[in-house]
Design goal:
With about 140 residues, the protein is mainly α. It has six helices and three strands, in the order H-E-H-H-E-H-E-H-H. Pfam families: Glyco_hydro_18 (PF00704).
Length: about 140
């Protein structure tokens, strides 16, 4: 998707709030294909979550997008931190919590009530890599 197309789509989605101002619109980032092995996007969540500078940049850029389009939050769909078959690393579990913590502190400092959600798997094989109490501390 081109950046012009993304901008147009974001603007159209944000305009739905004109019809229902109480509607909350979240941007969802990630997904199964984003995390596919042997793709350029597969390692990104792990790399961002593992590095404090990259977490800060990601949080600041996310805030900028949310403010630009009037969105209300972000949904992180990392499939799946820590899972070896998805090229995850054991450190992903703790780093995912750090990523959400940075998003939360950045959002709180903005003065806007912005939300954070994450997609959790139903499979024990993948769920065991999620620190649910840690993640829920920063999610809505």
């Amino acid at each position: 998707m081109s950046s012009d197309m993304s901008e147009e789509l974001f603007t159209q989605v944000a305009a739905v709030k004109d019809l229902k101002p109480s509607l909350k619109i979240y941007v969802s980032v990630g997904g199964w294909t984003f995390s596919d092995n042997d793709t350029v996007t597969q390692p990104l969540f792990g790399e961002i979550a593992a590095d404090a500078t990259k977490r800060r940049t990601f949080a600041n850029n996310t805030l900028k997008i949310l403010n630009t389009y009037g969105f209300d939050g972000i949904d992180i769909d990392w499939e799946y931190p820590g899972a070896g078959d998805r090229r995850g690393k054991p450190r992903d579990t703790d780093n995912y919590v750090k990523l959400l913590a940075k998003l939360r502190s950045t959002f709180n400092a903005s003065g806007r009530k912005l939300g954070i959600s994450f997609t959790a798997p139903s499979s024990y094989w993948y769920l065991k890599w999620f620190d649910l109490p840690g993640l829920l501390k920063y999610a809505d």
